[in-house]
């Protein structure tokens, strides 16, 4: 698995550089003014004006010679490094190490990163031979998975800016963006595990297994935000006010998390079809606006809603997949923070399920998040739960509840898992079963997996931030 944090080039041959040398707009104006002065001095035989024009032309040529000598700027190496984990939708800071391996000195070097998700604009006054300059950029990548950095551009117009040498460097480096972390109410999630077994057996008594659920502790007054399902009605009728059962959290236990990333078609096909439908809708709106008088706000809103419904068959499956992956990543994150907790991740994204076990350390958690970051979904008609059962027989999974996060509209057939005595809880993302305890948005985490402080607060990055 490729490293997640440091964005190093994939190979030396992947580096591509292009160099351009041309006069700037200011340089052309400079030359035009110098030419006009020279013409006026020669036409009117004013030697002072002709001398001034000659000096301007000489400076123009000198600037061109200096910038031309910066052709070795293409040998400068730029390394991008991220010293913290990159999560989708969260701002991050990355470091630029500008290394000059040549014996030439470059002055007034402008640095720009042409990446729409992680732009940077900076300035290095002097880049000495065999030295390295450091700069910083800010980014916010919205999509998980491997993100390829945009090209870097180094340019210099020293000393007068009449000419400019531009060198564009594309080294093919990339960074792994971890799934978006949402907000998980762990207490409500545990009560969800306690109150749900299977979707077809909601009216059956709740299954209580030692070490996997909360234990009854006592009664207290009903508070805002409490679930009505925990109201103790007999006591409420006796005392005349709502009383709720209070539970005591036991020590953290084992959790088996099964992710079923089902899609009706391949993810790339869905994205392509979605882009096609969106482009068609935009053309339709433009044609309607250009064909006659503008429609009323009600008619336009109704037409836009009608066109948006055409996107739903392609948009919703992708949104369900991202929600499922975010829910799984947030569960891994929150469960790993509990003392003594262990989580086992089972991914049904291939012929054979992949079982990953976390040892409770930050490195173990990072391995789970990295694997979740590259899930693409699959259009299989039936999930590979037989493979899970075979894995259970070959290498027994830890005891504790099993949570099945699925994007299918109907709960999958769990087969032997449902009759094995294990507490199995399916969560259908498409039906909103997670809405009680999970919010797909920015969670309250303000650090990285390894515990380092985040460089920026949650929010949108400043485009073109100075480095």
Characterize the structure shown:
This protein has helices at residues 25-43, 47-68, 186-195, 233-239, 267-291, 297-336, 362-373, 385-394, and strands at residues 6-7, 16-23, 77-81, 92-100, 106-113, 120-127, 131-139, 145-148, 152-156, 163-170, 174-177, 183-184, 215-221, 243-248, 254-260, 342-347, 354-357, 402-406, 424-428, 438-439. With 467 residues, the chain is of the alpha+beta class. The protein folds into 3 domains: 6-174, Immunoglobulin-like (Sandwich); 215-248, no CATH class; 254-268 and 314-439, 3-Layer(aba) Sandwich (Rossmann fold). The protein has a 5-stranded antiparallel sheet with strand order 2-10-9-5-6. A 5-stranded mixed sheet has the order 17-16-15-18-19, covered by helices on one side. It has a 4-stranded antiparallel sheet with strand order 1-3-4-7, with no helix packed on it.
CATH architecture of the largest domain: Sandwich
Stated plainly, the CATH topology of the largest domain is called: Immunoglobulin-like
* General form: elongated
How many helical stretches?
8
Strands ordered across the widest β-sheet: 2-10-9-5-6
Distance between the termini: 30 Å
Nearest-integer average pLDDT: 81
Q: How many DSSP E strands?
A: 20
For the record, what is the CATH homologous superfamily label of the largest domain?
A: Immunoglobulins
User: Radius of gyration in whole Å, from Cα?
Assistant: 31 Å
Largest sheet: 5 strands, antiparallel
Indicate the percent of residues in helices: 25-40%
What order do the helices and strands follow? Answer: EEHHEEEEEEEEEEHEHEEHHEEHHEEE
Q: Report the portion of residues in β strands.
A: 15-25%
CATH class category of the largest domain:
Mainly Beta
């Amino acid at each position: 698995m490729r490293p997640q944090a440091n964005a190093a080039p994939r190979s030396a041959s992947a580096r591509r550089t292009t160099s351009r040398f041309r006069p700037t707009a200011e340089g052309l104006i400079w030359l035009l003014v110098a030419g006009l002065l020279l013409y006026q001095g020669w036409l009117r035989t004013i030697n002072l004006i002709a001398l001034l024009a000659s000096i301007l032309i000489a400076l123009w040529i000198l600037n061109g010679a200096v910038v031309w000598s910066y052709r070795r700027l293409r040998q400068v190496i730029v390394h991008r490094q991220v010293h913290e984990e990159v999560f989708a939708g969260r701002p991050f800071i990355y470091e630029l190490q500008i290394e000059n391996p040549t014996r030439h000195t470059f002055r007034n070097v402008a640095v720009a990163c042409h990446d729409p998700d992680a732009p940077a604009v900076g300035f290095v006054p002097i880049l000495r031979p065999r030295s390295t300059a450091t700069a910083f950029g800010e980014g916010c990548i919205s999509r998980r998975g491997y993100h390829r950095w945009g090209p870097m551009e180094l340019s210099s117009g020293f000393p007068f800016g009449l000419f400019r040498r531009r060198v564009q460097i594309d080294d093919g480096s990339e960074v792994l963006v971890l799934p978006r972390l949402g907000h998980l109410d762990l207490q409500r999630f545990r009560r969800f595990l306690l109150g749900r077994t299977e979707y077809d057996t909601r009216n059956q008594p709740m299954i209580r297994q030692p070490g996997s659920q909360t234990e009854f502790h006592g009664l207290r007054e009903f508070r805002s935000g409490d679930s009505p399902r925990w109201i103790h009605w007999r006591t409420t009728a006796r005392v005349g006010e709502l009383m709720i059962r209070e539970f005591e959290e036991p020590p953290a236990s084992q959790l088996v998390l099964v992710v079923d990333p089902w899609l009706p078609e391949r993810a790339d096909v869905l994205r392509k079809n979605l882009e096609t439908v969106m482009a068609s809708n935009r053309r339709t709106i433009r044609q309607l606006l250009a064909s006659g008088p503008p429609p009323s706000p009600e008619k336009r809103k109704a037409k836009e809603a009608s066109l948006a419904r055409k996107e739903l068959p392609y948009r919703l499956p992708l949104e369900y997949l991202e929600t499922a992956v975010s829910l799984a990543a947030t569960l891994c994150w929150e469960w790993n923070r509990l003392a003594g907790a262990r989580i086992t991740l089972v991914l049904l994204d291939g012929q054979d399920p992949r079982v990953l076990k976390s040892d409770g350390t930050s490195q173990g958690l990072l391995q789970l998040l990295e694997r979740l970051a590259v899930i693409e979904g699959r259009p299989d008609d039936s999930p590979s739960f037989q493979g899970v059962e075979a894995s259970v027989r070959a290498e027994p999974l830890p005891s504790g509840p099993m949570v099945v996060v699925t994007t299918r509209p109907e709960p999958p057939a769990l087969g032997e898992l449902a009759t094995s005595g294990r507490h199995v809880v399916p969560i259908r993302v498409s039906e909103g079963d997670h809405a009680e305890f999970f919010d797909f948005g920015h969670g309250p985490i303000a650090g990285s997996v390894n515990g380092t402080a985040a460089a920026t607060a949650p929010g949108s990055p400043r485009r073109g931030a100075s480095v």
